[in-house]
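Lab meeting, item 3. Inverse folding demo.
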């Protein structure tokens, strides 16, 4: 057999293996293997301490339109290793797209905050009411978050308290640069009192690891802290009742960027009915915090082909984080 034919078969075999990896329902290893070209440069880990961003305020946008991403039942997620990811090679065209996106996003963030400042200066907006990042940072975010947790756990502000097993407050670093926000606890989360602990939680851990983040260095929470019965969609009064908890979490953690997982979380947080596919790949805002949007891991478990899009989304997210941190 000629060498070119062997090369060709090897290339086909490699492509086939890649395809199989991408369609593995557990997403096993794909986020680490795919899109991490073999170069030695490491993506720098974000610093533990988040500096305060520029002040500003903003009113949330239009009314919420909830929907739902059912969570498959599953075993608990393992603790995440802080797996570094290799940086994209110079000849990786998507790396240039990520860099361009991050530059555009930085400009959008600066414009947004300048606009908010003008609105506040003119008395047309209330900085304290609408800007999670505009108030003073807590001296001790760990203690502040612990105190808030103790306050929220027994919450009875909406009817979901009657059917919950546990309130799922959130988990992760009180100084996280990235806050992951889902829609509401599922069955496993309700039972364990922790967010994203099922199979989708395991996949989320892999997605984070693929961009060089351990679960412990981000903060993971939900819009609702209690499970809606049968994983039904959050109701607007429940979102309204629970949102103050989220705002107070954000004011303590002060993440540089939020990543919404799934259509319902994105539409509810951003108060829009825009489709997830139209929201992906762009920067949005919750108060004065930039928000990016991608698929819910539970959706990826059912639709593995969407992992490619998610990988692209989180690479852009990482590029923006790196710009915001540097
Ligand atoms: S969902 Fe939120 S507002 Fe409703 S009871 Fe739970 S913590 Fe309170």
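The presenter then showed the designed sequence:
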């Amino acid at each position: 057999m000629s060498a070119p034919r062997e090369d060709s078969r090897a290339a086909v075999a490699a492509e086939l293996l890649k395809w199989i990896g991408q369609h593995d329902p557990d997403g096993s290893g794909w986020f680490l293997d795919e899109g991490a070209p073999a170069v030695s440069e490491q993506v720098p880990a974000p610093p533990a301490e988040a500096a305060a961003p520029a002040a500003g305020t903003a009113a949330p946008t239009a009314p919420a339109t909830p929907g739902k991403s059912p969570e498959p039942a599953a075993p608990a997620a393992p603790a995440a290793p802080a797996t570094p990811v290799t940086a994209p090679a110079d000849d990786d065209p998507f790396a240039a797209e990520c860099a361009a996106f991050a530059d555009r996003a930085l400009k959008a963030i600066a414009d947004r905050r300048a606009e908010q400042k003008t609105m506040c200066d003119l008395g047309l907006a209330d900085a304290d009411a609408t800007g999670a990042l505009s108030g003073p940072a807590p001296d001790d975010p760990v203690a502040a978050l612990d105190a808030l947790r103790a306050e929220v756990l027994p919450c009875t502000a909406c009817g979901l308290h009657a059917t919950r097993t546990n309130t799922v407050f959130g988990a992760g670093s009180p100084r996280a640069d990235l806050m992951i926000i889902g829609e509401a606890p599922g069955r496993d989360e309700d039972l364990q009192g922790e967010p994203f602990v099922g199979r989708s939680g395991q996949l989320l851990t892999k997605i984070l690891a693929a961009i060089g983040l351990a679960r412990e260095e981000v903060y993971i929470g939900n819009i609702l802290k209690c499970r809606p019965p049968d994983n039904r969609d959050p109701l607007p009064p429940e979102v309204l009742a629970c949102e103050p908890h989220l705002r107070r979490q954000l004011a303590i953690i002060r993440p540089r960027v939020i990543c919404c997982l799934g259509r319902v979380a994105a539409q509810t947080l951003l108060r829009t009915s825009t489709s997830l596919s139209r929201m992906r790949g762009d920067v949005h805002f919750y108060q004065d915090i930039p928000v990016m949007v991608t698929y819910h891991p539970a959706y990826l478990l059912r639709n593995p082909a969407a992992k490619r899009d998610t990988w692209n989304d989180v690479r852009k997210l990482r590029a923006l984080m790196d710009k915001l941190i540097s």
